[in-house]
């Protein structure tokens, strides 16, 4: 085999080995930091479910609608959906 090719392959193997060692030595994320997003999303979902089951969610939704200034009840949107698009 050509000596230049041998040197190129050896250099490539050395760089790949160095990258692998650096990856192994890199600190791993802790279990808590990996699972925190799952816990946050799960707890938010459980909170919304609880509020919905106890009947406390609907008044909060109404307050949010009033806060944003949305006073329509959506009947205009429902009427527009009943009619064909070409009319």
Structure, described:
- The chain has one domain.
- The model has no long low-confidence stretch (mean pLDDT about 85).
- Helix content is about 75%, strand content about 0%.
- It is built from four helices and no strands.
- It is mainly alpha-helical and about 90 residues long.
- The chain starts with a helix and ends in a 5-residue tail after the last helix.
* Alpha carbon gyration radius: 30 Å
Low-confidence stretches: none
Structural class: mainly alpha
Q: How many domains? A: 1
Which sheet architecture does the biggest sheet show? none
Q: Total number of β-strand segments? A: 0
**H/E series, N to C?**
HHHH
Q: What is the terminal-to-terminal distance? A: 78 Å
Shape: elongated
Mean pLDDT equals: 85
What is the percentage of strand-forming residues? under 5%
Report the helical percentage.
Answer: over 70%
Our count of helices gives: 4
Features:
87 residues, elongated, 4 helices, mainly alpha
What is the structure about, briefly put?
With 87 residues, this protein is mainly alpha-helical.
Topology:
Elements: H1 3-25, H2 31-54, H3 57-68, H4 75-82
């Amino acid at each position: 085999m050509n000596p230049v090719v041998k040197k190129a392959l050896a250099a490539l193997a050395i760089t790949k080995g160095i990258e692998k060692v650096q990856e192994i030595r890199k600190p791993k994320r802790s279990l808590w930091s990996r699972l925190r997003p799952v816990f946050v999303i799960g707890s938010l979902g459980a909170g919304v479910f609880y509020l919905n089951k106890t009947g406390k969610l609907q008044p909060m939704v109404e307050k949010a609608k009033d806060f944003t200034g949305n006073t329509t009840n959506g009947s205009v949107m429902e009427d527009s959906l009943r009619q064909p698009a070409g009319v």
